[in-house]
Design a protein that fits this description.
The chain is mainly beta. Helices cover 2% and strands 46% of the residues. It has two domains: 164 residues; 72 residues, no CATH class. This is F-box associated beta-propeller type 1 domain-containing protein.
């Protein structure tokens, strides 16, 4: 089946993960939201899934998604066999937006929801990002006010246990730090910067930061955890006879 080609204004959200029940079946999910001029409307998105092994796009029907996502601001994290995004609901009677996490199970192809800690529920979704901290789901919430430019890192220590959300630390955004990109094995935090266009490594214990001499726009940096594997993305799986450590 070919890709959906919307005729009206639209936005895309993507997710990528592996079916842990099969271990050699990778899937790409694509959500297509229709827009009214520049605003995403309330219609549920179209859903398509691409299977790496077969090379075929498949449209998913009969699945209702109640939540929306922000254009150009979405991030994803793959943990426990599911892709996770930051999503939001519009609260009735002028109640603003309610932010949450929307997971998608790669094996079952089912969407769900995970509530955020109370401190983050009212944060607008453009000021939230989702990523992995070690093997756990993590949320970064930003404050961008005149007297408080900072971010907080929250970690879900037990998957899907709301009470296990724990604030790891709060970081003042100094030295032109703009956005958390990821976390290093030594405990330092990777930040993109706005004006100097450099990737820096920040030590939350000492408060020191170090430029890594990696240049780029602050929106262009991306860090992803990986696991070494001999699984091939296409074709039959094989084990290499000569492996160099």
């Amino acid at each position: 089946m070919p890709l959906i080609k919307p005729q009206s204004p639209h936005m895309f959200v993507f997710g990528f993960g592996v079916d842990l029940s099969k271990m050699d079946d990778y899937k790409l999910v694509r959500l297509v939201y229709r827009k009214n001029d520049v605003v995403v409307n309330n219609d549920p998105p179209e859903i398509e899934i691409y299977l790496i092994n077969s090379g075929i796009w498949r449209r998913v029907t009969g699945v209702e998604i109640k939540h929306c996502m922000m254009e150009f601001m979405w991030s994803q994290a793959f943990v426990n066999g599911a892709v996770h995004w930051i999503a939001y609901d519009v609260v009735a009677n002028g109640g603003g937006l309610r932010s949450l996490v929307m997971p998608f199970s790669i094996a079952d192809e089912v969407f769900g929801e995970i509530m955020l800690p109370d401190a983050l529920v009212g944060v607008i979704p453009t000021n939230l990002s989702i990523m992995l901290f070690e093997e756990s789901l993590a949320i970064v919430g930003y404050k961008r006010e005149i007297d408080d430019t900072s971010c907080e890192v929250w970690v879900m220590e037990q998957y899907r246990v709301l009470e296990s959300w724990s604030r790891l630390y709060r970081i003042n955004l100094v030295a032109d730090m703009e956005k958390v990109v990821g976390f290093r094995n030594n405990g330092e935090v990777l930040f993109s910067t706005r004006s100097i266009n450099d990737l820096i490594s920040y030590d939350p214990n000492s408060g020191r930061n170090m430029g890594l001499c990696i240049q780029g726009s602050y929106r262009s940096f991306y860090v992803q955890n990986y696991m070494e594997s001999l699984i091939l993305l296409k074709g039959n799986n094989a084990v290499l006879s000569n492996v160099v450590d």
